[in-house]
Amino acid sequence: MGYLEKKAREVRARRLTEAPRNAELAALLESAQAMPSAPSLESSLCSGTNIALIAEFKRRSPSGGQLAGDEEPGYVARSYEAAGASGISVLTDKSDFDGSLDDLETVAGNTSLPVLRKDFIVDAAGLFEARLAGAAAALLIMRILSQEEVERLIQEGRKAGLECLVEVHDEDELKGALESGATLVGINNRNLETLHTDLVITERLAPEVPAGITLVSESGIRSVDDVKRVQDVGVHAVLVGEVLMRLDSDRRSRMVTELAGVPR
After folding, report:
1. Of these residues, 7, 44, 56, 173, which one is catalytic?
2. From 188, 191, 217, 253, active-site residue
3. The pTM is what?
């Protein structure tokens, strides 16, 4: 059993006992709907003359080990925005990434950019929790969800004023994402079973994405040349995390500016 399958089983088992149900879920949605409108991640990624950058805050990862440690997420968020990012992704999974909704809320409170909740979301409550913490969007991983679940979760997200970035890794997942109604699609260059990254995944899948879909290349982006490489096959944005979180604050800001400066 690979990493992602184990993780999905763990998350589903936990959510069966922890996630709000019925009246609690309805109240959670009502609270999410009462939140001030969030900026649109999709609009932010499509505006401007350069390839958009979603810069990520994460404390650690299964493949990369410890990254940010105790670095203050609000400071990182402000530096990302000042350096030219178009959005910020925040890992909220605790067990493997040391993340939390508190990190997400802190980031959202320190930037005007749209913030993406990146986690293993399997239910509507996870979307509503994200919106209440200030997220503008949330990640849905096609590999751990059925097409019907993705379609339903996209609809539930819209009820709460939340966009969904649907992540795919192969042709079948891309087909399912498009048929589910996704308009914001992320191609993950990392195989979440082996944790190996390869930009060939974006190069192979991007030409299959129809016009009108906002396309993000995720993982494995380490340089301006990598951004140019995926730009050549039509992506609108790149999501970069680990390489940024390994740098000190000055070098991180410079790299954000460089990665966000590649013309469309």
Report:
1. 56
2. 188
3. 0.96
User: What is the Cα–Cα distance from 170 to 115, expressed in whole angstroms?
Assistant: 26
Q: Which residues pair with 54 in a beta bridge?
A: 87, 239
Could you confirm whether 118 is annotated as catalytic?
Answer: yes
Q: Is residue 264 part of a domain?
A: no
Structure tokens at 246: 């390994």
* 167 tagged catalytic: yes
Please tell me the number of Cα atoms within 13 Å of 164 on its side-chain side.
31
Q: How many Cβ atoms from other residues are within 10 Å of residue 142's Cβ?
A: 25
Catalytic residue among 42, 156, 163, 218: 218
Residue 146 lies inside a defined structural domain of this protein: yes
Catalytic-residue membership of 56: yes
Task: Mark whether 58 is an active-site residue.
Answer: yes
Domain of residue 133: give its range.
3-259
Q: Quick check: is 242 catalytic? A: no
Q: Which two tokens stand for residue 38?
A: 């969030």
Residue 59 covered by a domain: yes
pLDDT in tens, 44-92: 999 989 999 999 999 988 877 888 667 899 999 999 999 999 999 999 9
In a domain, 155, yes or no: yes
* Active-site residue (options: 7, 42, 44, 58): 58
**Is 193 considered catalytic here?**
no
Q: What total number of domains does the chain contain?
A: 1
